[in-house]
Description:
The complex is a heterodimer of chains A (about 180) and B (about 180).
Chain A: H1 7-47, E1 57-68, E2 74-75, H2 80-86, E3 96-108, E4 113-116, E5 121-130, E6 134-142, E7 148-157, E8 161-167, E9 173-180
Parallel strand pairs in A: 2-3
Antiparallel strand pairs in A: 1-3, 1-9, 4-5, 5-6, 6-7, 8-9
Chain B: H1 10-17, H2 24-32, H3 34-60, H4 63-77, H5 84-94, H6 96-116, E1 145-150, E2 154-163, E3 166-175, H7 176-179
Antiparallel strand pairs in B: 2-3
Helix pairs in contact in B: 1-3, 2-3
Amino acid sequence: MSDRVPGPTTSGTGSGTGSGTGSGTGGTAARRVTIAVTLAVVVALIGSAKPARADVTTECDFLEISAKTGAKPAIDGELQRVEKKLKKPPFSTWNQFKLLSHTKKTLAKKKPEPVGLKIGAATATLVEIVDKSKVRLTITMDDEKGKQVANNTATVEAGDYVIFVHELANNDGHLLSLTCN
Amino acid sequence: MTRPSTASTDLELMEHADGELTDGELAARIERDPEARAKLASIEQVGALVRGHLELSADAVPDAKLAAMWRRIDEQLVAPTTGLWSRVMAWFDRYRGHVITGAVSAGAVAALALILRPSAPDGGVPGRAGGAISAVPVALRATPEIDALETPGGSSTVINLDDEDGHTTVIWVTPADTVEGI
């Protein structure tokens, strides 16, 4: 029975554990904190990394408008956003404006996007985004015969408008308005 | 060193209780002596009590402490590893808790970074549904710039209009046949 009493063993382990763990705990905690901080920083850096520039896009609104001169002024209700502009020169040449088509397109950088028109066709390409608030766009516009009317690259602020006006032979107008956000 | 032949001594009884003395004569003597039998029973009871207490004390030692003790013993017993992979695995075994703590902390930080990442787009990166650019107030907007303009088969006029909604650039294309009055 006396052999099983762990008197000396217990006291030996106790003192050994006490001193060993005491100094080891400080080192262990420091190592643990170091590893945790290192991993945290690495993951945080990876997590906050910016996506590739290939993701650059902008959303543009295209309004195709027919412009005529008639007895009574008339502007489609759907053209409310540009109504004020249409009432002023040089658009006041006409007094009747009808919305032919309304297209919303998300443009990806350097990817030409066809814009469906009732008369002719158009394409829009986002060249780049400038200063976080401007877009550089290339717009091409063809008439109903497929002949190019305009090929334009312009830099405009978000919310501003570019309006293409194609004068037709009968003095009517074919307008393409665009704004991006 | 004479031992009484008629009565068993306390030492003999203790040795007998511990199984250290297995003398047939002693057993017979104890059998005959009621006082010795009572003493032996008491000794056995005390022994059982002490053993029970020690076992309970051993059970009361926290598992973590025991695990740490065994780990230290294992570390001393296991021969030092030589291969790189073995050393890596040995390191991982030793610091598994640290790595897990680090991974959990890193996950928490990454989640915070993702949640707190500014939603405003930077350099054209989409930060919200829809457009990637942010409109500035009308008063601060720059005048549109025409970088290139071609109007095959016609002439063009560029007009810049300003109003409270901002700038409007009008690109007026007049076909050549219209100009020539054909």
